[in-house]
Automatic annotation (TrEMBL), chain A:
The lineage of its organism: Bacteria, Pseudomonadati, Pseudomonadota, Alphaproteobacteria, Sphingomonadales. This is Acetyl-CoA acetyltransferase. InterPro entries: Thiolase, Thiolase-like, Thiolase_C_2. Residues 267-380 form the Thiolase C-terminal domain. It comes from Sphingobium boeckii. One of its GO terms (molecular function) is acetyl-CoA C-acyltransferase activity. It comes from the Bacteria.
Automatic annotation (TrEMBL), chain B:
PANTHER family: BLR3430 PROTEIN (PTHR34075:SF5). Pfam families: OB_ChsH2_C, zf-ChsH2. It comes from Sphingobium boeckii. This is DNA-binding protein. Signal peptide: none annotated.
Amino acid sequence: MSNEAYITGIGMSEVGVRLTRSPLLLTVDAVKEAIADAGLTLDQIDGVATYPGKMASFLGFSPVSSDDLIEVLGLETRWHIGAAETTAQLGAIAEAANAVKAGLARHVICFRTVYEAAALARPEEFPPMERRKDVSGNSQWVSPFGAFSAANWTAQFAMRHMKRYGLTREQLAQVALNDHANAAINPRALVKKPLTMDDYMSARLISTPFCLYDCDRFTDASTVVIVSAGDAIDEVKTTPIRIAATAGSVERYSWDQAEWAGAYPTGRDLWKNTDYQPKDVDTVQLYDGFAFQPITWLEGLGFCGIGEGGLFLEGGKRIARDGALPMNTGGGQLGWGRLHGFGFAFEAVVQLRGEGGARQIGGDPRVAIATSGGGPMAAALLLTKD
Amino acid sequence: MAWQRSRPRLDNDNRAFWTGGADGKLNITRCNDCGGFIHPPREICRHCQSENVAPFAVAGTGSVDTYTVNHQAWAKDMDVPFVIARVKLDDAPGVYLTTNIVNCPVDAVDVDDRVQVVFEEQDGIWYPLFEKVQ
C-alpha cells in the first residue's frame, strides 16, 4: 500500500458570483472542510500543490499561491508546488500523487481557487489581463483578431466537428441540459433549476456554435482535495479513493496550432497506465468549461469512436444519472460553476464514496474518471474504491 | 471592424510577421536547412533544431480549416458579429493562422473556402486578414 496515493479528504468554499470574502479566506474555508472531512489536523499536512500558482498578471484567475497558504496555515511542509507549466488543472493532483508515492510528503493539500467574477467587479484590486496593448506570448496570435476568449478558440474545434462528423446543436445541448439537471439537485451548485431544449435553442449566441449555455461563467470559489500516501491512510477516517492512474499531455502550447485536443493523447495514455478498461468505469466527470470539451474526452478516452461523440450524447439518456455512463453528476462547470477542473475530482470522490445524496448514482460505483483541460492541454485521473 | 486591434509587442522573433504587410508580404519563419515552417516564430527550428531560420514570404493563399462567428463584444468598441477563422496556408505545411475573414457577409463563410491575405494596418502593425477568393 505504501507505493500508492489516495484522495482522503475533499472540501469546498461557498460557490458564488461576486463574493466579497477574500480568495485567501475562501481557500482556508475549503481547507478546513477537507481537513475535517479526512479527520486530519493541520499539523499532519506536509505538502501543498496548486494549479496554476498565483498569477500577478491575471489575479482573478489565480489569486492565491501555495506559499500564501503555507504561511497563513502555519504549515511545516516538506514539499510544495504551484505551477501553470504542467499538463492541466488536475496535473496538480497528479503531481501530489507522485510526491506521496516517492515519500516526499504524507498528506498534501491540493487546491484551485478562482475569483474571476469578483475580480471583474473589483478591477482596481484585481486587474484584468491585458488584451489590448503589448500583447505577447500566445495571446498575440489570437487577441488581435478579436478572439479574446477560449470560447472563440474552442468554438472553432466544435465547428470543425460539426462540419467533419455531423455533430448537431441538439446533441451538443445535452451537455448543458444534463449539467443543469444535475446542478438543480446539488445544493452547492450555482445553477438552481433545469434547462429545457427550448431555453437552449433560444439563448443568445456567443461564438457559433456556442450559445450562452455552452460556456461556463466566472465563479468565485475554492476547491480542495487532500492526497495521502498509502502508508498514511490509517490516519484518516474517510473511505480512501485510490488514484489508480494519471495521464497528461500538451498537444501544442498554441491553441491555434493544435490539430487535436489534448484529450485524445491523454485519453489514450490513461489506459496505458492501468489494467482497468473503459467498460469498468461507473461514472465520468469530464471537463466542460465549454460544452464541446466532453465530446473530445468521450472520444479520447475511447467511450466512443472519433467523430461519434455527438451520437453518444444524443437524447441525453446515456449520460444521465441513471444512464449507462453518468456524466458530470454534480452539474459540471456549466451547472456547478467554473471551479476550473478541481470540481471534477471532488465530484468523482463524492460518487465513489456514495455521498451524493439526491444526485447519487446507483450500483455502488467503484471506478470513476475525472478530467481537466480543453484545447491542447489535458490531464486525467482514474479513481477507484478498492 | 472599427475597433482598435490588440497590439502585439514586437520582438526579434515576431517582427517580420507583424510588419511584413508593409511590403505586401506574409512572412512565416522557415528553416533554411530542413525547409520546415516554424509558427509561432522562434529562433530555432522546431523540426530539426537548426538555428538557420529566417522569415519567408509565402503566397498568402489558403483555405478555411475551421471558423466561428463571434457574437460577443469582448471589448466596448468591438463591432459584432464577425468571423474568426483558422486558415491553413497553402505553402506552409502545418501552419495555421487565426484571423478574420473580411469583405463578405458573416454567413458566407464555410470550411474549405479558398481565401487570400489582405492586410489591415493600425499603428505600424500589419494585421494579416483574409478574404474569400471569388
